[in-house]
Amino acid sequence: MKPRFNIWLPLLSFLFSTCSTYDVPVTRDNCCILDDRFGSFCPTTCGIADFLNTYQPTVDRDLRILEQILEQISNSSGLTDQLIAQIRQAHMGSPQTQPNVIPGYTQKSREIIDEIIRYENIVVAHENTIQQLTDLLILNNNNIQHLKQKTAQLEAQCQQPCKDTVQIQELTGRDCQDIANKGARQSGLYFIKPLKAKEQFLVYCEMDTLGNGWTVFQRRLDGSEDFNKNWIQYKEGFGHLSPNDQTEFWLGNEKIHLITTQSAIPYALRIELEDWSGQKSYADYAHFKVGTEADKYRLTYAFFSGGEAGDAFEGYDFGDDPSDKFFTSHNGMQFSTPDNDNDKFDGNCAEQDRSGWWMNRCHAAHLNGKYYQGGSYTEKDAGPNGYDNGIIWATWRSRWYSMKKTSMKIIPFSRLSVVTGGQAGGVKEVGDA
Ligand SMILES: [Ca+2]
């Protein structure tokens, strides 16, 4: 930096050399310095010195400020140069790093975008699932609502008192004929109380318009009831009684005994049969009785009194052995069940044939046998033993033919002539009454 006073020295020497020589009034022509601050006269040396002394501090200060500004500019320029150099350097070095950095970030960005798309898809899939589940929930709620309504309806129904839909007739008697004698003409369920019975019990009475009243104690019609039962069940009875005679049952040996032995009045037994072609037949037995339990509910009758089904209770000659008929007769036989063998056979007929019956060795009649759909059956159908175990009436159909429908019913013997004499076509009219 140059010394600041150097520029004033030529100026001072000039002033001293010019202004000191003039004594005349100052004009532009004779005074080089014309300034109002000097007044209207050309300044003297002292005057200029005073002037300079007056303004010098201000000028010096301004100069210093200017010097400072210049210094700042100079410094700023240096800084700018440094920055430019750095930028250049950075610019020169960057081409080497860019190719590696940008592909790396691009790859990273793509991966992030792929990831975002994948998550978006998952979110959309979950939204669909949520929608489906919501629909299902609504559906289930509706179903629950529906079930609640049903439950409420059922509860309301259950509040109502139970109604017995089975109609039981009011008249009673010691058997169905006794009730018919009192005027009953409608078939259905009645209570009867045989003379020696301790209490009344329900039976199905088959009534007709002629005043006949049959007491029915066995019914087969569709195989709905299993007749493979034990001693107690055959004693007490099983199956169901219905007012329209549309159910299978065995009334019970004790009840049959009580009815058939209650007085000296003899009963007639009627067997009714129907095969799978719809053909019907019957067989009647006079003075039918069933004995006490102590005598194993023994079957007795006086004689076969007719019927196109034939007298199977008398036994049947199957052609196997001369003694066939003797050993297949039933009159005088005790009742047997699988758990109570009272037959004339070394083995157990009731167990072999899976039924309860007045077994001999074993039978020509077997109405409590196994129910075979269609009628005909074989030894193979009968099971491992191969015995004839169907619903058999050997004098009407083969022992390998099982009946479609059967019934066993009783009436006082004295009525049998009325029944038989009052019908032209056999059993049919009574059965349909
Ligand atoms: Ca035996």
Automatic annotation (TrEMBL):
A Pfam short name: Fib_alpha
Quaternary state and interactors: Heterohexamer; disulfide linked. Contains 2 sets of 3 non-identical chains (alpha, beta and gamma). The 2 heterotrimers are in head to head conformation with the N-termini in a small central domain.
Main localization (coarse): secreted
Entry keywords, A to Z: Blood coagulation, Calcium, Coiled coil, Disulfide bond, Glycoprotein, Hemostasis, Metal-binding, Secreted, Signal
Subcellular location: Secreted
CDD domains, alphabetized: FReD (cd00087)
Signal peptide positions (record): 1-21
Gene3D superfamilies associated with the record: 1.20.5.50, Gamma Fibrinogen, chain A, domain 1, Gamma-fibrinogen Carboxyl Terminal Fragment, domain 2
GO CC, alphabetical: external side of plasma membrane; fibrinogen complex; platelet alpha granule
TM region positions: none
Protein name: Fibrinogen gamma chain
GO molecular function: cell adhesion molecule binding; extracellular matrix structural constituent; metal ion binding; protein-macromolecule adaptor activity; signaling receptor binding
One GO process term, biological-process aspect: negative regulation of extrinsic apoptotic signaling pathway via death domain receptors
Domain of life of the native organism: Eukaryota
Keyword Glycoprotein found: yes
Ranges for domain Fibrinogen C-terminal: 167-414
Organism, scientific name: Podarcis muralis (Wall lizard)
